[in-house]
Amino acid sequence: MARDVGSGLSTTPKDLSPWPKYFYDAEGSRLFEEITAQPEYYQTGAELSILKSRSEEILARTRCRELVELGSGSASKTRALIDAMIDANGADGPPPRYVPLDVSESALRESGERLVAEYPGLEIQGFVGDFDLSLGRLLGRPSDRNRLVAFLGGTVGNFTPQKRRKFLGALRAGLREGDRALIGLDLVKDARTLEAAYNDAAGVTARFNRNMIRVINNRLGAGLDPDLFSHRAVYDADLERIEMWLYSEAEQKVQTPDLEARFEGGEGVRTEISAKFTPESAARTFEQSGLELLDIYTDDRDLFALALGGPA
Ligand code: SAH
Ligand code: AVI
């Protein structure tokens, strides 16, 4: 982490967006859940509506008995897929299995405990880990079932373009014949709707953004003052992405054995990108990674999409 943060704070402009995982300690996971309940943050409701209306069709079509979920978080939307997987599987063959992976241990434990209680017939094997590093190992586990690998929430948009290609390439390489991938993509739309979603009136996204500074303080002893940072999120229509930034209102210095950095007063650091897709850019993204795009499902307001793919 010291190496990542050190390199992110030594570029001009400062850029921590290649490492969105540093948002998600227990407090970051809690704040993300709070974001999903904000009226401006349309993604969660839109994706849930697609999952509710299409899960049955997706599971009937893919006939998967194992649901692998990357960056599962609270897994609250996943129930639609789990229900459909259980319904689509007759009494024959191995029981359905759910395999979530998340870097946030608290989110994984809480969601796992809830699901164990709710679904007595479901096998659950959760993994705490970083999908940047362990996707190959996760998908390389032996399995006697067709797998549906879900990556919900639009988290694929948080990768830099280079990391996105690498990640989807690794996902493609890990899919076996009969496996499918289901990837949530937030869609391009007017800048006002997008910027409102990342600058909610209650200030929850601002707190989520500042939480990255707290994580850096807690883990690296950086001693930055989170309250000196102001939050801004802007939509770049050319790059089709939201960028979240934090601006230090005063000069601040970090000097630890592992990390040295300095913020000028007014200097910013990009903390997150969140790419938005069109059906065309989604198809291009899949093609570049060797994934065959089988279908794109959208909600009735075309806010969000779920792309279903398989090994090409
Ligand atoms: N899928 C959920 C959560 C999305 S938030 C939803 O749709 O609501 C993004 C999730 O990805 C968080 O739970 C976070 O902890 C996890 N995450 C972020 N970077 C990660 C990484 N490198 N490896 C594993 N999980 C990661
Ligand atoms: C997890 N990810 C898809 C969220 C997003 O919308 O990019 C994270 C987030 N950042 C600010 N608000 C929500």
Automatic annotation (TrEMBL):
GO terms, molecular function: L-histidine N(alpha)-methyltransferase activity
GO terms (BP aspect): methylation
Enzyme class: transferase
Domain Histidine-specific methyltransferase SAM-dependent: 2-308
Top-rank taxon, per record: Bacteria
Pfam family for this entry, one: Methyltransf_33
InterPro entries in the record: EgtD, EgtD_Methyltrsf_superfamily, MeTrfase_dom, MeTrfase_EgtD-like, SAM-dependent_MTases_sf
EC number from the UniProt entry: 2.1.1.44
UniProt keyword terms in alphabetical order: Methyltransferase, Transferase
NCBIfam families for the chain: egtD_ergothio (TIGR03438)
Protein name: L-histidine N(Alpha)-methyltransferase
